[in-house]
Amino acid sequence: AQQKDCAETVRRSADALLSVINDILDFSKIEAGKLAIESLDFDLRLVMEAVNEMLAPNAEDKQLDLILEYPPRLPREFVGDAGRIRQVVTNLVGNAVKFTPAGQILATVDCESQDGEKATVRVSVQDNGPGIPADKMASVFEKFIQGDSSTTRRHGGTGLGLAICKQLIELMGGSIGVNSQLGGGSTLRLTLPPQPG
Length: 197
Ligand code: ADP
Description:
Helix content: 40-55%
Bound molecules: adenosine-5'-diphosphate
Number of helices: 5
Strand order of the largest sheet: 2-4-5-7-6
Order of helices and strands: HEHEEHEEHHEE
Distance between the termini: 59 Å
Largest sheet: 5 strands, mixed
Structural class: alpha+beta
């Protein structure tokens, strides 16, 4: 039992270290202007399902409901960088799970606007966690900024995740925003890049 405990600690530490290294590598690559965005066909619903599947055990550990809403009338086929979109959505859902002590996380895909055949699609991740103070709302997308000084102690992290998300989605031609109230949960919204005609 003691060895199992040690092995679990080693694994948790390795995961935490890997995520810090990956964040720093991504950030350096973006700052060096060397991050290339792919443009390939992908199925957005499969991307959303993969994120939920990956984070389901974390949500289960905290007894949080992780819900995905993807209305069948919405298109599924898109052109873009599925890996990077998955990375950004994983970060948003991962944060929601990390910061929410109880309740549910709702990931929704909907249509922000329609221009003829072309739909601009939005991914929203809503939680009923602690929310973000009004004076921190704009700065959470800046590098190394965390909600308050106890965040790292309680939840780990580097404050790089959302800064990377913003840079990635803007490199793709999309945008990211937040709506939150202290004590009233948070909604992070991702507008995917308009599709090529
Ligand atoms: P990290 O998760 O490493 O702390 P991020 O850049 O992903 O860094 O997030 C920055 C800060 O934004 C977090 O430290 C936290 O204070 C706040 N934040 C992000 N998502 C949420 C959320 N869903 N609920 C509450 N606070 C959040």
